[in-house]
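tl;dr need the bound structure. longer version: we got a ligand (zinc ion) that a collaborator sent over and nobodys looked at where it sits. i said id run it. heres the input, straight from their email, havent touched it
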Amino acid sequence: MTNLFITNARVLGQDPTSIAIENGTITAVGPDATAPAGARVIDANGLIALPGLVDLHTHLREPGQEDAETVESGTRAAAAGGYTCVHAMANTNPVADNASVVEQVAHLGAKAGWVEVRPVGAVSENLEGKHLSAMGAMAQSQAHVRVFSDDGKCVWDPVLMRRALEYVRSFDGVVAQHAQDPRLTDGAQMNESPLSGRLGLAGWPAVAEESIIARDLQLAQHVGSRLHVCHLSTAGSVDLVRWAKKRGINVTAEVTPHHLYFTEDQATSYDPRFKVNPPLRRREDVEAVREGLVDGTIDIVATDHAPHPLESKDCEWQVGAFGMTGLETALSVVIETMVTPGKMCWADVARVMSSAPARIGRVAGQGQPIEAGSVANLTLIDPETRRDITLDNQVSASTNTPWVGRSLPGSVEWTIYAGRVTVAEGELQQGDHE
Ligand SMILES: NC(=O)N[C@@H](CC(=O)O)C(=O)O
Ligand SMILES: [Zn+2]
Ligand SMILES: [Zn+2]
């Protein structure tokens, strides 16, 4: 591995400085730092340095749906988006509900070498919501699973949810809940509102999300466990989590870039690219999740990168699949919605997209501060450049991005994963990281 010397980098937006990296570790940060022996020099003039981004919620689709994404293609997209670690959701085929599947996913991630892949383990066998999965075996496996989720499906049975919460305590794990009451959302197609009535699409009421979150908060308090709320999307959900944190309940929450940006109005196009679970909500909800992210009620931004093959999206709204890709645009959306309007600074971005997700997932060596002694996981971004999102500049194997045809601020110029350059001057470095 080549030593690196980064000059003129604005660490978290501060004054330009130098960063020395030796054998994959940051050894010095400051204007007086000197180049390590044989170092490749990276001139970061005009670039902001952030810790490598960490996604707590990525669908990599392997095993089973390799036409939509593979561990290789999804992690390549992650590196392009400035990530150095992703958590791979368990709703694969076969489901990641046992040690051998999570070890396989972790192995594929290590082989690809683009980012650290942390597999998420299913809560229930085959995501059926009936029997607990082999949680302990996954936690103790080589994949060191700490995040458990039936994402895509809600752990609806309160007894099963209670048992899962109790179980993860013994290995400091967390249950990440996809909060969706299945009965209240039977056949649902978009947010329930006057608009869903007008469009003739079956409504998905906010209460379907909020009632599950309320129950889970009470359960987490009752058993004293760690709960994480996936892709929270309504003002009421923000209120519930705010209330729970005040009471000292051990809860964390995430919001997606798309819920920070889009409203339900996108459904008027009937373009299934905007069909997602949970659905895009009202303007008031978008305002509330932004506010929740600013005041710390919402801990992190997670992509919920959900690639789907063309045939699942190139169709009528009613039959289209739920989900949108997000790894390549997440940081830009956070800049657009939070940094540019002055609601967040770069240190906040580092917190919600790197250090906090690493802490929730209990990932050592990720999300560390940019200082001597930390693992060299970094992303260098040009905050000014705007880029046009088009169908042919997608790195993911799928193209179901809602940002196509739009322009977003910020470009990832360099990504450095454990001291290896995965993106250089905006280009993916095929092979260099191996
Ligand atoms: N978000 C989505 O709309 N879809 C996800 C599942 C999920 O995150 O619930 C998927 O796996 O496609
Ligand atoms: Zn989900
Ligand atoms: Zn998901």
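gonna send this back to them w/ a short note. DSSP finds eleven helices and 19 strands in the chain.
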